UniProtKB/TrEMBL annotation:
Main localization category: membrane
Protein name: Sugar phosphate transporter domain-containing protein
Membrane-spanning intervals of the chain: 12-34, 77-95, 101-122
Keywords recorded for this protein, A-Z: Membrane, Transmembrane, Transmembrane helix
UniProt KW Transmembrane keyword: yes
Keyword Signal in record: no
InterPro entries xref list: TPT_transporter
């Protein structure tokens, strides 16, 4: 694709707005599904399956350049994947228990809590740029 410099700001704005809309829609859809069905692990499994299919579809159509499945890479990413799945499972469980504005507020403050905990555990003081990013 050939993008001119005149259209680049509009594409960036479109990407940002699209991300915001899809992020908010995902929270509302997840909340609606969780209110209708009590088993959040089914929702998690469905989301992972759809992500896998979309990545595969993107590879087949040439839209993305993701590498194929590799057992060595899968072994290296196993622990990270388990922690990610636990994070998503806990997020869905918390979304089930609180209202949407409270969920969003807590989710947005999580990185700040991690930075503060890291500071107290001897990881050092994060730069002011990191704090600005957390509050943005």
């Amino acid at each position: 694709m050939d993008y001119t410099t005149d259209s680049a700001p509009y594409l960036s704005l479109f990407a940002a707005v699209s991300y915001g809309v899809s992020s908010m829609a995902m929270v509302f859809i997840n909340k609606a599904v969780l209110m209708q069905y009590s088993n959040s692990m089914t929702l998690l499994t469905f989301q992972q399956l759809m992500t896998t299919l979309l990545i595969r579809f993107g590879r087949v159509t040439g839209y993305t350049k993701a590498r194929g499945f590799n057992i060595e890479t899968a072994k290296k990413l196993l622990l990270v994947s388990l922690f990610y799945n636990a994070n998503v499972a806990f997020a869905l469980a918390s979304l089930k228990g609180v209202n949407i504005p409270m969920y969003i507020a807590i989710k947005r403050l999580t990185p700040l809590a991690v930075l503060i905990a890291g500071f107290f555990y001897g990881k050092g003081k994060p730069t002011t740029q990191v704090y600005k990013h957390c509050f943005a």
